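Please check this one:

***
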Amino acid sequence: MIFGCIRFFAAGLLVAVGLSGCIDGNVGSSDSSMLPDDSGLSLPDTNMASPEGIIVWNDRVFVANANFAYQGASLVFKAGFITVIDSSTGSVVNRIPVPFPNPQEMAIYGGRLWVLCSGSTTFDPVSSLVTISESGGLAGIELDGIDSASEPGVLIPIPSSEGSIVGYPSGMLVDEGRAWLGSGTSASLFLADLGEGRLLRGAGDPIMISSDSGQNTVSIGRGPAGTMVAALFNQDTVMLIDRIDGRVLDDPWAPASVGMEGQLDGILDVEIDDAGGRIFLLLGMAGRIVSIDAATGPAGGVTEVAAGLVVPNRMKMIGGKLHVVCSGDNSLAVIDPSGDEPVRRTGLPVNCNPWELDGGIVGDSIEIWLTCLKSSSVVRVRMDDPDILEIK
């Protein structure tokens, strides 16, 4: 389902997909039959096109461009690419095509920028399910020389069967050289070894984290004491995952719901505050943020941190505050988890439709970079400066 120009990564609310597979590039072995055909890649004339993921690294900002267009009720993905921006000047210094469709998430590991491309989906009116139509994969781009790079150096295909609901890797957590990937269409995880450049668990051998084999979407983030936190959109359920083998843990706490009884709140994002010992959950459908104690889980109480967020998409803990991009009112919300300060909202440029954000502390202020899905631009917001920089 498409809400205006807003795309939720939720089973049944989704329009895009990914999968499971093998390797390529400078690392590991490869099966050329599994690699995408990149011979026809051509980029648009614009610096960005349907930008989604964003990550700040030193004086560079990397933007993942899904480059999609509407075709009736569906999305058609053209060549995806990464935009490289000099954060000190706001200048675009490079665009790098990726051969897999729909690049969304990024992480940095082992001297490379790793780009997760989800692939694409279609809605099956017979089963009323969102199913895989095209596979995705991981693309690794060397950071050394990225300003002039023309292609990724390592490719890890993530194939899935067309028509299946198991696939669409749309969330990523990199831990000690392994990329844990959350499915956007089922309650499953996939796993890739970035050091060796190969897929360990894919759509043909997924790690299932729920007994419910139906449609779902997994959000994944860091957890306490060597664990990961996974959340299921369709069940409003949060759980701890063993970061070695992907098992769902019952200790120190078992999976539990954090949503309002009788309604779908829809967990979209997960953040942890190590210092405060709290896990924060963004409930997209409810427009709320709740927190739980990292040591005791939901059994220790579910605390409401914020409400009234209008179509929130992503959040990030920076400088002790939660920063949330909201498409519904085109804003960046800054939330004090302690409740001592009121919610601060910054209006964004017209038609921005913010999707993802990253940033950090620069000097004495917090600097946020975010993607604008509808206007195909990137915005920089400095908390001590009323002027907003928009880059197109």
